[in-house]
Amino acid sequence: MAHDIAQLRDLLESQIKEVTTPESLQKIEAEFLGRTGHISNLISQIKNIAPENKRAYGENINQLKNYIRETLLAKGSTISSNNKTPLDLTIPGIRPQSGRLHPTTITINRLNYFFRYYGFSVTDGNEIVTNRINFELLNLPPDHPARDLQDSLYIEEPNILLRTHTSSVEVETMIKEKPPIRVVVPGRCFRNETANSTNGAVFYQYEGLYVDENVTMGNLKWILEKFAKFVYGDKIKTRFRAKYYPQVEPGAGFDVLCTFCGGEGCSVCKYRGYIELIGCGMVHPNALKKCGVDNLKYSGFAFGMGLDRIVMTTFNIPDIRVLYNGDLCLS
Ligand SMILES: [Zn+2]
Prior knowledge:
The chain is of the alpha+beta class. It contains ten helices and ten strands. Helices cover 38% and strands 20% of the residues. The strands form two sheets. Strands 1-5-6-10-9-8-7 form a seven-stranded mixed beta sheet, sandwiched between helices. A three-stranded antiparallel beta sheet has the order 2-4-3. The radius of gyration is 38 Å and the shape is elongated. Its EC number is 6.1.1.20.
């Protein structure tokens, strides 16, 4: 027994001399004090010791164990002081991650800045709306495809749903306020869409409404052309096309030359050369009337745009899903 203990001391001392790294020290610790190490081995021999010698045997093991611990500890502190890197104040610091605004927020702020300059105020409305606010008062007939139960996300069919466009806020504003009304509405909208690179179930629209005496299509064209130049620069080419929307009469589509291909045709503009940016027109007299506005005295224009498309074209982001993804490495 005594021989075993003496042998182990020698073994430890010879091994510890060679140690230069924390890893090799850990290896020795496991070899001596680990679950299947030398000490455990000695303890497992206790059953073979004569009863009168058991006490002395146990004490010897404890002494050895303490000796091993102290030796390992002493060696450990020598290694760590040898391995300490000297303090170097010239090493550059680690740059902390700084936050910044989301491209959608930056775009909303820019657009608000533009429209505020021309006398519009920024407003927001409810995201959960009634069928009446979202469809009926906007002159959308019951058989309009947008009213299909499959295309909208209903909270309670058939009357309460998530707004499918920010035009619902036009209605809420016309009901609440008297003309002159000049508002823009940035906001989230919801449709039952399968997500792909250009569509999502959640998306942003940016809507505008101007109701006053003598508002004409000329006013609408003027502000939208100014707007396109503000967003894409003075050289941007634009065009108006006649287009049908039930809530306006006449209705128009406002397009800008594709910023990705310069009009040559690409997958972003679906090989048309132009990107449809805004749906607009003169507010339908029926919609004015339904919202309590005197349609003989007042007229108005309204426009709405997919904000995500503006964000994508100005930040050169080819996939809409990047805007709604929490992965910071993608954006
Ligand atoms: Zn294109």
